[in-house]
């Protein structure tokens, strides 16, 4: 279920660019083997980060400050797309940067029982999960940023959903046997096979995306949308496979353009990878 209500029993801590200190400090998921517990940060060559600045929503309310929406992310994970989209809107936000253990931990599961990022907590305690929903919520909430389908265009909306669905459910999920082979293949001896099969599948998907991006600055509509933020994250991951992003010239050029985007750099700087 996507829309759940959080924080009725106790306020969710409000964290400014850092991990929650109190209610999200939990042990790594019990059932998860060590290599899985380290993914995707370790699989992606990412490390943990420094202690956060923490203020509680209750404190903020007492001080009369409005509580901006809060995005829960893991460094460099798919949640980076929602983070970049938020920066592109120029809206105020708070960030909770979690470790993989925290994402699987009890505290965060109260917020998102699926134990995955991203999650976007709104100021009334409503929580939105799933990248597609979070990205479209962000885009729809800040129409001036023009990150969404054109208002009223049913076809553009369908094209945006189409692109996001492909990125989220095909491209992203094709990485799963690479990051967590133990979830797909029981015998450790066979897990490398699962990874090699995933790499082959990924190569087909990236080749298709590369063809689509030829001569295009943006994925859709000749302008920037939230789908570009997600495509960027998928491009960042590709160097973790035997065939690096450089093999896909249009995608490599797209990534280089976004690497140079100051707002993308700001988002990356807020998700320290050590
Ligand atoms: N269907 C979810 C998947 C989100 C997802 O897989 N997030 C990963 C990070 S890229 C995660 O939190 N993984 C934690 C885990 O699987 O233990 C979405 O599209 O938002």
Can you tell me about this structure?
The protein has 274 residues and is of the alpha+beta class. It folds into two domains: 14-146 and 262-269, 3-Layer(aba) Sandwich (Glutaredoxin), CATH 3.40.30.10; 154-259, Glutathione S-transferase Yfyf (Class Pi), Chain A, domain 2, CATH 1.20.1050. Helix content is 45%, strand content 10%. The chain contains twelve helices and seven strands. It has helices at residues 34-37, 57-62, 79-89, 100-104, 106-111, 131-141, 154-174, 176-179, 191-213, 226-237, 249-259, 262-269; strands at residues 4-5, 13-16, 53-56, 69-73, 93-97, 119-121, 126-129. The strands form two sheets. The protein has a five-stranded mixed sheet, with helices on one face. The protein has a two-stranded antiparallel ribbon with strand order 2-3. Helix 7 packs parallel to helix 10 (226-237) and helix 9 (191-213) packs across helix 11. The protein is globular, with a radius of gyration of 18 Å. Residues 1-61 have low confidence and may be disordered. It binds glutathione.
Q: Strand fraction band?
A: 5-15%
The number of distinct β-strands equals: 7
CATH architecture of the largest domain: 3-Layer(aba) Sandwich
What's the CATH H-level superfamily name of the largest domain? Answer: Glutaredoxin
Structural class: alpha+beta
Rg, Å, rounded: 18 Å
Q: Which CATH C-level class of the largest domain is it?
A: Alpha Beta
Order of helices and strands: EEHEHEHEHHEEHHHHHHH
CATH topology name of the largest domain, in short, is: Glutaredoxin
- Biggest sheet strand line-up: 1-7-6-4-5
- Poorly predicted residue ranges: 1-61
Number of helices: 12
- Overall pLDDT confidence: 82
Give the tally of structural domains.
2
Shape: globular
**CA-CA gap between termini:** 34 Å
User: What's the story with the biggest beta sheet?
Assistant: 5 strands, mixed
Task: Determine the fraction of residues in helical runs and give it as a percent range.
Answer: 40-55%
């Amino acid at each position: 279920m996507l829309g759940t209500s959080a924080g009725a029993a106790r306020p969710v801590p409000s964290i400014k660019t850092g991990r929650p200190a109190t209610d999200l400090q939990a042990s790594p998921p019990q059932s998860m083997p060590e290599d899985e517990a380290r993914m995707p940060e370790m699989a992606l060559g990412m490390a943990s980060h420094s202690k956060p600045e923490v203020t509680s929503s209750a404190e903020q309310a007492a001080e009369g400050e409005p509580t901006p929406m809060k995005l829960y992310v893991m460094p460099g994970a798919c949640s980076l797309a929602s983070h970049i989209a938020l920066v592109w809107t120029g809206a105020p936000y708070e960030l909770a940067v979690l470790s993989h253990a925290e994402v699987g931990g009890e505290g965060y599961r109260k917020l998102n029982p699926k134990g995955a990022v991203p999650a976007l907590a709104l100021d009334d305690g409503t929580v939105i999960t799933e990248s597609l929903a979070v990205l479209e919520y962000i885009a729809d909430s800040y129409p001036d940023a023009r990150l969404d389908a054109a208002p009223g265009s049913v076809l553009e909306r369908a094209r945006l959903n189409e692109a996001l669905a492909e990125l989220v459910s095909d491209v992203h999920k094709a990485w799963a046997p690479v990051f967590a082979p133990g979830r797909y293949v029981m015998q450790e001896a066979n897990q490398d096979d699962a990874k090699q099969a995933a790499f082959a599948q990924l190569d087909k998907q990236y080749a298709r995306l590369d063809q689509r991006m030829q001569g295009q600055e943006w994925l859709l509509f000749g302008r920037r949308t939230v789908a570009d933020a997600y495509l960027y994250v998928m491009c960042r991951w590709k160097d973790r496979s035997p065939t690096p992003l450089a093999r896909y010239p249009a995608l490599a050029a797209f990534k280089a353009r976004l690497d140079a985007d100051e707002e993308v750099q700001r988002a990356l700087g807020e998700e320290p990878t050590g």
